[in-house]
Amino acid sequence: MIRDNSEVILSVKNLTANVDGTQIIKGLNLEIKSGEIHAIMGPNGSGKSTFSKILAGHPAYEVTGGEISFMGQNLLKLDPEDRSRSGIFLAFQYPLEIPGVSNRDFLRVSCNAKRKHESLEELDPMDFDDLVYEKLELLKMDSEFLDRGVNEGFSGGEKKRNEILQMALLEPKLGVLDEIDSGLDIDALRVVSSGVNALSNENNAMLLVTHYQRLLDYITPDYIHVMAEGRILQTGTKELALELEAKGYDWILEGATV
Amino acid sequence: MSIEVKLQGHELTDAEVNPTIAASKAKVKVDRTAYLTDLVKLRNPEIPDWMQQTRDHASAIVQELAIPSSRDEDWRFTDLSALLATQFKSVTEPSALGFEQIQSYMLPECVNSRLVFVDGIYAADLSAVDDLPEETIVGSLAQVQEFLPQVSDYFAKQPGGEEVFTALNTASIVDGAIVWIPKDQIVKTPIHLLFVATGTAKFLVQPRILIVAGSGSEVTLVEDYVILNDRNYFINSVAEIQVDCNAKVNHVRIQRDSDSAFHIGKTAVSQARDSQYCGIAVNFGGAIARHNWEIYTNGEQTHSQLLGLSWITGDRTSDTHSLIAFSKPHCTAKQINKCIADDRSHGIFNGRICVPKLAQQTDAAQLSRSLLLSPKARIDTKPQLEIVADNVKCAHGATVSQLEDDAVFYLQSRGIDSESARKLLTYAFATEVINEITIDSLKSKLQTIVRSASKG
User: Which pLDDT value is given to residue B11?
Assistant: First the structure.
């Protein structure tokens, strides 16, 4: 929901970034306020996923210019773990499998790292179980998930649900969801979307990165940004998604080069 | 790092089946021969009569051999010159240990199913076997023959006895551990064979184990090497395991030695028809720690499982040479060998699988995975599949890698700092093997060791 007096959660100004010496992000500007849901759409190779990884602090991307301010602090100075603890959450396009570490232990360690950062008491395994069972229901996940290795042998849909489960536990200020809809059948998409909708409130914000307009049938964004060539070329409301679905990206790309 | 794959498609000669002997015979050098002869001289001359003939036979073999050098194919990656530079001495009298000194190594599951050997000498006062069924015989090998005359049919009868260190052990035999499980006996209580090295400097200790699992029986064994002091010594151990028809043996071998220790250990397993052998070996290395792990299947439809984990730090070396030799059709084997090498350590794995013409329908899978935690650590891994039969499934794979940056980043993005993330991933790599151990106290003990060993 858009409110003029909401606090600014994320402010990106003239961001440029390289991967292996090649410039991928070429002057990106974006402002996200609390309570808002933003969607970034764009063709393959436009830099969407790169941008989401930069927000989370992936070491492979080198920021060469511009600034990112998150909750008033310079995000670029923070290590990935500190970004997470301060309230940035990246749902991975391809969540990693970590055999040998149980999902339960992983979630608890992660949850406690955040609590410690907020000077809250760390949860013991019993208290943590109470919390996680509550969140499992939201994602319609069986508790059997907790005893498996992290994402080990999970289907695509299970991995994505596990990402949203982590977001539910970490309660971030900004959820960055990188292609959370790709590879999902319609039932899984409904579950994942309703999880995101349930977690979205006036004190946080969501940034969806997606190829497909379909996701936006389930999660209604306040703003849609079209990204190409490492920049945001056009910003509009949800109607823009329908136009993109009907006409493709070319008309925006052509408009931009003029 | 080197990975070699050798595939052969012809009948094997004796020299190929046993390259160590062929090679070491060919290249006998005086000093390596003399050194070996000196090691034999350290043996205790007084032994039970029934062992005499076996010992004499082995002594004759040893006379023809020498300590192998890196020119021997089986010792290409492991240099024994540090061993040759040390003069060892014999254990003249047993060290008296109290329970409190070995308390931390005892397993609650095996309170009354434990044999303890101190510097290779049987410690009756520290051993207890009251929890085991009466029909089983678990105790000192030397004293067993008068009421178990059949023992002579099994002792030193496994293939590969002519290998130099195996022959050295047999030529020096005085005593050992015997575990005899009669036909159809299911032993639920695991049996703990605890070998304590007191760490008295420069001792040569040669433990010996004989396990016979009668047909239809089942037993779980823990072969456990521990130390009380961080000194240099030489353990040359041999475990022979006979798995009769339809029997099942679960075998866990844990090797924990000092930084300067030499440990050359042999596990020789023979499997009869329909039997199962499930082995787990956890190695923490030493100045040189070598495990020769040999499985000979002599009947149809056997299953063999070999899970290995080496976790090495500092300047340690851990070397596993395994052999799975099939001889009959319809047998299966699964092998996973993992190595985590930190600092300047050196991990070696050579996994040989022989499938002769008769062993049709063999289904074998071997996987070697190594994790390098430091730029100065080194891994040599070499699958060695020798397949003559034409209707078999033999899969193998070898990977050597560092911790994945993306995996570390994934954990960091969940608020876990990079050091903890690295620790967690290293621990996770190791637990795939450790989690297979069915004895809870041992499993959690090893998890603790591995958790604290990962420096991140």
Answer: 39
Q: Is the pLDDT of residue B63 over 80?
A: yes
Identity of the residue numbered A69: S
Chain A residues touching residue B431 (CB < 8 angstroms): 100-101
- Classify strands B346-355 and A231-236 as parallel, antiparallel or unpaired: unpaired
> What's the longest Cα–Cα distance across chain A?
61
d(CA B168, CA A3): 84
Q: Measured between alpha carbons, how far is B161 from B152 in angstroms, rounded to an integer? A: 15
CA neighbor of A19 nearest in space, from A63, A49, A52: A63
In contact, B4 and B49? CB cutoff 8 Å: no
Interface contact A162, partner B, CB < 8 A: no
DSSP-derived 3-state class of residue B306:
strand
Domains of chain A: 8-95+173-257 (3.40.50.300)
Q: Cα–Cα–Cα angle for B450, B455, B456, nearest 5°?
A: 110
What are the helix (H) ranges across B7-129?
Answer: 14-17, 19-26, 30-41, 49-63, 81-84, 99-102
Q: Which amino acid is at B184?
A: D
Q: How far is CA B451 from CA B281, B447, B448, in A?
A: 18, 6, 5
Using alpha carbons, select from B245, B308, B252, B294 the residue that is nearest to residue B445: B252
Half-sphere exposure of B113 (CA within 13 A, CB side): 22
Q: Which residues contact A38 (CB under 8 A, 6 or more apart)?
A: A30, A32, A205, A206, A207, A208, A221, A222, A223, A224, A225
Evaluate whether B262 touches B288 at the Cβ level (below 8 Å): yes
**What ipTM was predicted for this assembly?**
0.94
- As a whole number of angstroms, the distance between CA A213 and CA A207 comes to 14
CA A93, CA A87: separation in Å to the nearest integer?
19
Closest among A198, A238, A182, A231 to A38, alpha carbons compared: A238
Domain ranges for chain B, please list them: 2-402, 409-456
Of B367, B403, B410, which to mutate for an interface test with A (greatest number of A Cβ within 10 Å)?
B410
Q: Please give, rounded to a whole number of angstroms, the shortest distance from the CA of B414 to a CA of chain A.
A: 6
- DSSP H helical segments within B160-312, as ranges? 164-171
- The answer to whether the CB of A243 falls within 8 A of the CB of A216 is no
Task: Convert A78-111 to b/e letters by CB count within 10 Å (16 or more is b).
Answer: bebbbbbbbbbbbbbbebbebebbbbbbbbbbbb
A 21-80 near B (Cβ less than 8 A): 56-60, 79-80
Are B416 and A81 in contact by the 8 Å Cβ rule? The answer is yes
Quick one: pLDDT band at residue B192, thresholds 50, 70, 90? very high
pLDDT digits (tens, 9 = 90+) for A152-200: 999 998 999 999 999 999 999 999 999 998 888 899 999 999 999 999 9
Asked if B419 reaches chain A (Cβ–Cβ under 8 Å), the answer is: no
- Going by the DSSP 8-state scheme, the letter that residue B376 receives in this structure is T
Distance CA A228, CA A249 (A): 9
CB contact under 8 A, A80 and B412: yes
